[in-house]
From TrEMBL:
Source organism superkingdom: Bacteria
Protein known as: Cysteine hydrolase
UniProt GO molecular function: hydrolase activity
Pfam families: Isochorismatase
């Protein structure tokens, strides 16, 4: 993998609410550690970092703006000069200035990490790929939760994660592991 000097690291929804027990069992218990390693490396190399923050329109959401769940986790708190994109839907491009600001900065390569793999990560990666960005999703720096499918069958977080990555790989993005970057 050839990393551009201005490849942007996009950290999706690393907010306090994502640890709420009501979200259920998850996979990839080391995902945050890997995200933190990537963030540290991006900062060290002075590459662009973009923090995506979900501001839900639903008061039942763990990301409802009127409570602490919407705040960034301490270890992922944006630094001065790091861009913050606030979104109200899973896709970080929808209704935001993300695409325009990336193009304005001449950024063509995106490294996407965060949560939830099947939701905000997948929808953002799909749009990035559709818009022509060279998109990489770091499998072990993402995670998701158990989910029931349309037919009522329950799937483990790992199964949901695997299917979501399968949906992305080779069509919208390239799925990699952290060892392929660091």
């Amino acid at each position: 993998m050839e990393l551009h000097t201005n490849a942007a690291l996009i950290l999706i929804d690393q907010q306090k609410g994502i640890h709420h027990p009501k979200l259920g069992p998850r996979n990839n218990p080391d995902a945050e550690e890997y995200m933190a390693q990537l963030l540290s490396e991006w900062r060290r190399m002075a590459r662009p970092v973009i923090h995506v923050q979900h501001l839900s329109r639903s008061p039942e959401s763990v990301f409802w703006p009127q409570q602490s769940g919407v705040e960034f986790q301490e270890r992922f708190e944006p630094l001065l000069g790091e861009r913050v994109i606030q979104k109200q839907v899973p896709d970080a491009f929808s209704g935001t200035t993300l695409a325009a600001s990336l193009r304005e900065a001449g950024i063509e390569q995106l490294i996407i990490v965060g949560v939830a793999t099947h939701n905000s990560v997948e929808s953002t990666a799909r749009t990035a790929g559709n818009l022509g960005f060279e998109t990489w999703v770091v499998e072990d720096a993402c995670y998701t939760f158990d989910k029931v499918d349309f037919f009522g069958k329950k799937h483990s977080a790992q199964e949901v994660h695997a299917m979501s990555l399968g949906n992305l790989h080779g069509e919208y993005a390239t799925v990699i592991r952290i060892t392929e970057i660091l």
